[in-house]
Amino acid sequence: MKYSYIARCVAKQLARGFKLPYMVMFETTQMCNMFCEYCIFGEEGKFNDLQTRAARQRIFQRIDEFCDLGVFALSFSGGEPLLNPSTCDYIAYAADRGLWTSMPTNGLLIRKYADGVARLDMLEVSIDSLNPERFAKRRGINALPKIIDNLEYVLGKRRPFTTQINAAVNLENLHDLPALAEFCQQRHLVLHPEAVHNVMRNGELLPDAELHGPDIDTVADFLIELRRQFPKNVRFYTHYYDFYRAGGFRPGFPCRHPSRLISMKPDGSLHLPCAFKTLYHSQAPVKEFLASPEARQLIAQETTMWDFCHGCKIGCPYEVSAFTNSPTLALQSALDFLRWS
């Protein structure tokens, strides 16, 4: 099912010169049950998800629209995506249609929804450190033992190397990563370390949490050595740290989120230019949305960028942008991430 679906998507993309979006970031909720020191979410009562349950049929219709368009992948994100009680229904529906599915989660609810998350092609659990005190400081909640217990339970339902540990890295937790890599090695998990970056949400910024100057090189060099020690488990894009050093998105390396990564909110509305800043949104069918004058104008502006884009280093937009900005970099990045280079 999945291979035949991917073949159909490739044919559709080829027919359009690979200019169609190929991934959807679906924020199933904008609420979170953690309070991470470097994340805009976790502020209780700030976001309202009252329309989420009423949107169920609209979301199923959206998934059909994405398949018809030729979208390859659907990422269920948030906030904490499992706070939406319908998320596992959406995962199952997308998986049955053949989409490649992934979901980052803080892990607090994965045991409760173990059968649902078992359908994901890649389950991503956020763990920055196995030190309980450091974890609690960074995440705002003393929950590491519960998350590890939940993870161990869920792994019994998943194949090796289809579960990823996402570690947000700065100097505070850098030297905790070898223990985390060994933890992944013992359980056949992927460890994806990514430097902490500031998250902008409609113009609102957290206090600066990013690496600067020589600290970037310290982290990058440490991770390269860690990957040498754990080649089957530690995966990341080496070029991401060149991108980080250069100041993130810039005219020579623009963000391609508007044209390649569809942003969908909990109510099923589509947003441009990205998941983090809305200049235009609509409930129109996806093909109609992309063909609208408003969407076409915004997509045409992506190479010149907006002020809020400059300096953004968020990982998902970086990934689709790296693959779009340079075919050579796309190939190098894929091989680099998978450790085939």
Task: Walk me through the topology.
Layout lengths: L1 H14 L7 E5 L28 H14 L3 E5 L9 H11 L2 E6 L8 H4 L4 E5 L5 H8 L4 H12 L7 E7 L7 H11 L2 E6 L4 E2 L2 E2 L8 H16 L8 H8 L11 H4 E4 L5 E5 L2 E6 L3 H6 L1 H8 L14 H11 L1 H12 L3
Parallel strand pairs: 1-2, 1-9, 2-3, 3-4, 4-5, 5-6
Antiparallel strand pairs: 7-8, 9-10, 10-11
Helix pairs in contact: 2-3, 8-9, 13-14
Describe the protein's architecture and organization.
The chain has 341 residues and is of the alpha/beta class. The chain has a single domain (2-338), classed as TIM Barrel. The chain is 41% helix and 16% strand. The strands form two sheets. A nine-stranded mixed β-sheet has the order 6-5-4-3-2-1-9-10-11, with helices on both faces. A two-stranded antiparallel sheet has the order 7-8. The longest helix is centred in the middle third of the chain and has 16 residues, at 214-229. The two termini are 30 Å apart. The model is unreliable at 43-47 (pLDDT under 50).
Gyration radius (Cα, Å) is 19 Å
Helix content: 40-55%
The strand order across the widest sheet is: 6-5-4-3-2-1-9-10-11
Top CATH class: Alpha Beta
Structural class by sheet pairing and helices? alpha/beta
Largest sheet: 9 strands, mixed
CATH superfamily: Aldolase class I
Could you give the distance between the termini? 30 Å
C-alpha geometry: globular
Order of helices and strands: HEHEHEHEHHEHEEEHHHEEEHHHH
Known CATH architecture: Alpha-Beta Barrel
Low-confidence stretches: 43-47
Beta-strand residue fraction: 15-25%
CATH topology: TIM Barrel
Count of helical stretches: 14
